[in-house]
Amino acid sequence: MTEKTALITGSTGGIGKYLVSSLKEDVTVVSPTRKELDLSSNSSINNYISSLDIPIDIIVNCAGIHKAGNCEDLTEYDFQNVLQINLIAPFQIISGLAKGMKERKYGRILNISSIWSVIAKEKRSIYSASKSGLDGLTRTLALELAPFNILVNSIAPGYVDTKMIQLYNSEKELEKIKKIIPLGRFAKPSEIGELAKFLCSEKNSYITGQIIPIDGGYTTQ
Is the pTM of this model over 0.70? Predict the structure, then answer.
């Protein structure tokens, strides 16, 4: 794996930085800044892909945004913005780099989804829609790219101990949520990183098209 290169978006986020630290032990990691790669701009994505002068063997689409609210309080712009970052940008990146992976007959693609693509919660409508779309993309591309030894999967984290869950939940709500999780705690970002590391490695040779919850048993209830 030492000769492989991984492109990771959203590398400064709570989960993203742990993905970088997990993968860089085994592969070369490219983690562009927003100035280098603006996921809200289709032209920026295309220009960035065109500028790459090294083959990309692994893609981890970790960047994502969240907009919570009742449907009547959310705008068309909110919907378009969330879809652009969470769904359209990953599709552009994958489609832009898939040709090289096909030629080399090797690739690992990992999309960071969410349990809110599997189950529902109020005020998560556009976020859930974007992540459900991402999971649909994962399944379809897994079929499309399988003949070229390119594996495509999604990780669907539950509540992870990052700043994001504190933004959308009060301390009282967080304590209540912990009691609902069968394991009684939030996931550590490093635990997400370890699963990602396996799915992106050559050790994973037969898992593709899967949406894998990592949520302490939350979605099994």
Answer: yes
